[in-house]
Amino acid sequence: MDEQNLKKIILENSVKHKGKANIKFVFGNVIRDYPDYKKNIPELKKMLEPLVKEINNLSIEEQTTILKKLNPSFFEEKKKDIFDFLDIKEGTQVITAFPPSPEKHYHIGHAKAILLNYLLAKKYNGKFYLRFEDTNPKNVRPEYYKVMLDDIGWLGVSWDKVIYASDHIDLLYDYATTLVKKGQAYVCFCSPEQMSKNREHQQACDCRRASVEENLKNWFSFKEYDEGTATLRLKIDLKHKNTRMRDPAIFRIIEAEHPRHGYRHRAYPMYDFQNAILDGYFNITHRFRTQEFYMASELHHYIRKILKLYDTFTYEIARFNLKGMLSSGRLIREKINEGELLGWDDPSLPTLVALKRRGFSSEAIKQLVVESGISRSSGTSLTWDTLEKYNKRYLNDIAQRHFFIKEPIKIEVVDDPKKEYFLKKNPKKDLGTRNFKSTGEYYLEKEDVDSFVNGDLIRLMDNINIIKKEDKYVYSSCDYLDYKDYPGSKKIIHFLPADDNQLHKAKILTPDHKIIEGICEKQVSSLKVSDVIQFERFGFCRLDEIKDNVYSFWFTHK
Ligand SMILES: [Zn+2]
Fold first, then answer.
1. Following DSSP, what letter does each residue of 245-273 receive, concatenated?
2. What is the pTM of this model?
3. How many whole angstroms from 257 Cα to the centroid of ligand 1?
4. Out of 80, 429, 487, 507, which residue is the most buried by the measure of CB atoms under 10 Å away?
5. DSSP state for residue 87 in the 8-state scheme
6. Measured in angstroms, how far is the CA atom of residue 110 from the centroid of ligand 1?
7. In the prediction, which pLDDT does 28 show?
8. What phi, psi does 316 have (nearest 5°)?
């Protein structure tokens, strides 16, 4: 073995260990990489010792410079990416999509599929499409076209194209016609009950035996049938082990006005047919979607195959299990109608609009999605605690600190120096300061005041130390060290100057619909609606409204 290779191994060790290679470890590494040396340990030792000594005499900067030449890959970060398992080669054209159905607000559980599709496209400089699944006019609530774009946009996602499945019904109709002509689809006049019974018993109905000519004739008059009297079905296999493959319906009649197309259509494609074709038609290369599509995937691939369409790679991911969160759209709607919830953005809900209004950051949600990884089987349990942990991590360094006092009690401080004092807006990041001017009187929180006993040293945060003497509060000093070294019982609390000119009224709405009223420092007037701050010793809050000089916040979390 040449000296260069030995040097490389020593340098890797020394750079890892603050510039000092450990000969024992180096020995082990050499033997691991070059097992032949086992036969000649004394010789290896003789070679290594002077080299280790020589390298250990260099500064770590010099060692780094040499190692960078010998083995540049040592310094490359081997970051694991959640999409590595897809094994996509650099330069591959990636197009992903997410299909919102315009009928409700999304909740945090949907965020994963949206973000994964978006992030994958972004990673490969690809394209990300949104495709509204709006081919059942009865399920389309027109105002939700915009709502969903707002919800998805809030996640920090941008899209290259918005597609409406309903704009492609003629195309889908033509594909269906192709299948009828090829004898791969037939018009079925059975009732829905009969159809599901046949499916269960793996039995074909008489309609299945009709000739191609007969089917074509029926298909061309399909649009004249009444709703519920006929469907177009794929001819696959009624004994298929995947029930979704047992001659599924692909077109049906719906008599309803479509918000985009009025009464132009009567024959509407079923979800699976539309979804499978439009993925292929728009050359969607990858789709992440939640586990409930697992059975449908086989059908989707099959449809693309028989129509010779591009076959999208689909991957079904485990859903977030939302623990202790109300997420059913139907239930939410009910509770809104009954007045139990303020709306889709009620602070108790995990909907994206509610999270936004409470002050959750979409960046924190993105981190949560990425760090929870991609798994097919085991769903990640998502609780408020997890969500709050990620959000807090994000907010800690950027949120301004302010003081809020509920149930204020006025106290006077004997011998108060009545000085002006400055408090940092954030302990870590330089966001500037807030200043107060003391009048010798302060507002403290009732709960704090009730807890004081005679002889307590009370530090008004970043300001002064006072001592409780009987029913008086007496100034003691400003120095934090005096507080730190005080032998008796002590407490650091927040406070406000008892001076209306330096205060604002504030109220905070909590997720359980309570309103906490109090006062806060005047500096909140520098905030804009939507800013998220931290009220010290209370929690994070988002400024929701300023009305009649009252600052209304929504409680984010502790
Ligand atoms: Zn039938």
1. GSS-EEEEE--S-BTTTBTS-SEEE-HHH
2. 0.83
3. 27
4. 507
5. -
6. 37
7. 84
8. -95, 120
